[in-house]
UniProtKB/TrEMBL annotation:
GO terms for molecular function: pre-mRNA 3'-splice site binding; zinc ion binding. This is Pre-mRNA-splicing factor SLU7. Associated with the spliceosome. It comes from Penaeus vannamei. It comes from the Eukaryota. One of its GO terms (biological process) is mRNA splicing, via spliceosome.
Length: 273
């Protein structure tokens, strides 16, 4: 027995009715008029404001394009829930105090393991990602100096502030040693200052005399060094050809000028011509 044939117009009509069932129905003129009067009365305060599903009053002065929920939101009455952040669309981030652990090292093996790095022998990365110096003979073949395994760090999803936090992972307790060292230095300075103030005049005079003696000793050493340099100059005088050079006398200057008068015959002055 063949199945009964359904007209195409009936199928299209049923589909149209299904679609119209999901969308809101159009309001008549009277319904629009009543809604407008109710809105004006709520704004005037003669009628109580609309209440949402949580029992909170909705401000009647909110514009219609804000207070009216879209038809696909599926609200059964007046609500402002569509204007609030939707939980399913909110991104969750890690806490600001969560950070990556730094300076940690994994366990160190004594033999090569399958799947480890062929260069250093550590688990967690491959040979092409190894940051150690390429070895002539890798750890896979000699099993020497196997590096520590990589520490598996958590995958943190940080927000804008978390990515730019300069003090992320800083522990103030680690700085206590530096503070303690400076406190010791300051305490030593205070003790030294108190000790200097408590010294008597005789001790201060003794210190001044000691400084004066040291200055005299340094001056004496400088004088001795200068005298030694002078003696060295005297010993080296005979090797200096310019040491005994003297300025020419008037007779020598006159004789030189006479020799230069007859440049055509250089031997004239020598021969007495």
């Amino acid at each position: 027995m063949s199945a009964p044939s359904i007209p195409l117009s009936s199928i299209l009509k049923s589909k149209h009715e299904e679609v119209e069932g999901d969308e809101p129905k159009k309001k008549t003129r009277e319904e629009w008029k009543k809604a407008k009067e109710l809105e004006e009365a709520r704004k005037a305060g003669t009628v109580p404001a609309a209440v949402d599903e949580e029992g909170k009053d909705i401000n009647p002065h909110i514009p219609q394009y804000i207070s009216t929920a879209p038809w696909y939101f599926g609200s059964g009455g007046p609500t402002l829930k569509h204007q609030r952040p939707q939980p399913e669309k909110q991104s969750s981030f890690n806490h600001l105090n969560e950070h990556y652990a730094r300076g940690q090292k994994g366990s160190v093996a004594t033999r090569y393991r399958k799947g480890a790095c062929e260069n250093c022998g550590g688990l967690g990365h491959k040979k092409k990602d190894c940051v150690e110096r390429p070895r002539k003979v890798g750890a896979k073949f000699n099993a020497r100096n196997i590096a520590a395994d990589d520490v598996l760090l958590p995958t943190l999803k940080l927000d804008f502030d978390g990515k730019r936090d300069r003090w992320n992972g800083f522990n103030p307790a680690d700085y206590a040693a530096v503070v303690e060292e400076h406190q010791k230095v300051e305490e030593y300075k205070r003790q030294l200052k108190a000790k200097n103030e408590s010294e008597s005049e005789e001790q201060k005079e003794e210190k001044r005399r000691k400084k004066l003696r040291e200055a005299l000793i340094r001056a004496k050493m400088e004088e001795d060094e200068a005298a030694n340099m002078m003696k060295m100059d005297e010993r080296m005088r005979k090797y200096n050809s310019m040491y005994n050079a003297k300025a020419p006398t008037e007779e020598e200057i006159e004789a030189y000028q006479l020799r230069r008068q007859r440049e055509d015959d250089p031997m004239a002055a020598f021969l007495g011509k």
